Amino acid sequence: VKLLLSSDPCEWTESLRQEFLLIAEGFWSIPIPSISISYNRAIKAKEKVVESLSLVVEERRRAMEEGERKNDVLGAILDEKAGNEHSNEMIVDLLVSLLLAGYETTSSAMTLSVKFLTENPRALSELKEEQDKIRAQKGDDNEPLVWNDYKSMPFTQCVISETLRVSNIVGGIFRRTLSDVQLNGYTIPKGWKIFAALRGPHMNDEYFKDARTFNPWRWQSDAEKTPANVFIPFGGGPRLCPGYELSRVSISVFLHHLVTNYSWEPAEKDKVVFFPFTGTQKRYPIYVKRN
Ligand code: HEM
């Protein structure tokens, strides 16, 4: 919300977050209002979010007419030559897509990386060593990370890749065939809708030995051998997730601050669930202690 609309955490962002959770819950529900409570709730929540964001867009248009400009995503959209031609509805739709696509995915991956690290003390200790080294090279504790730091976290990147592979935050993607497609002896006729399950290759022992085991070290030895089209947590082709690098950077920075400043332990037993979307049953509560 800060990046999109320059809004700091407040009551309004919190109520927006609550509505978003309902939208996310309804995402994979059966889209029949008469039988699905979560679908109904999601539709109502989406209406509230659209109403709320429409007011923000209108307000911003007025402010821009008076020469006020904010350096955020909404500002960039309205700055565009085409910005004025986009209806409020289109802009709100774009903002909702970015909030949904960018928030739940990255925050779930962060949560799961913490869970997997907690359950793999050796991986946690190696990651902490890497991050402590980066922190030690900084003059003071508040000095921010820079791009070169991000590029010198090879083991952290292994942990992130492995978290994405095992957790399958986005379980699959939709496509429509533009012509008849031959696949493994089957013909998928032109115009059919396809659900490509990304989980399939990620959990295949043929591509990833002991595929169900969280093993970040596999990326040290196997990275070059893994064909590009079997590790596809961000989809692929022209619709490849545009946030793929941003989310890796966010998770890296989060892990850096977490392991260099804090230690933690799980507050209760929790379990990863994969349906309707990947997450933890209890949102993985932890007790955190500043080092
Ligand atoms: C761990 C984090 C994330 C995962 C696992 C993820 C995964 C995906 C996947 C699988 C797709 C579908 C790609 C396809 O159809 O081939 C997608 C699309 C998309 N993602 Fe992400 N994503 C993540 C983070 C983000 C972030 C941080 C943003 C933006 C701030 C973002 C924005 C989008 C958008 C706008 C699309 C639609 C692209 C299109 O249809 O052209 N994602 N993402």
Automatic annotation (TrEMBL):
Similarity field: Belongs to the cytochrome P450 family.
Annotated organism of origin: Spinacia oleracea (Spinach)
Q: Which UniProt keywords apply?
A: Heme, Iron, Membrane, Metal-binding, Monooxygenase, Oxidoreductase, Signal, Transmembrane, Transmembrane helix
Q: Which Pfam families match?
A: p450 (PF00067)
Where mainly located? membrane
Q: Does the keyword Iron apply?
A: yes
Record-linked Gene3D superfamilies: Cytochrome P450
Question: What does the record say about its membrane topology?
Answer: Single-pass membrane protein
Question: Quick one: which gene encodes this?
Answer: LOC110785503
The Swiss-Prot or TrEMBL record lists the needed cofactor(s) as: heme
Q: Pathway membership of this protein?
A: Plant hormone biosynthesis; brassinosteroid biosynthesis; Hormone biosynthesis
Protein name, as recorded:
3beta,22alpha-dihydroxysteroid 3-dehydrogenase isoform X2
Q: Lineage of this protein's species?
A: Eukaryota, Viridiplantae, Streptophyta, Embryophyta, Tracheophyta
Q: Which InterPro entries does the annotation name?
A: Cyt_P450, Cyt_P450_CS, Cyt_P450_E_grp-I, Cyt_P450_sf
User: What are the subcellular locations of this protein?
Assistant: Membrane
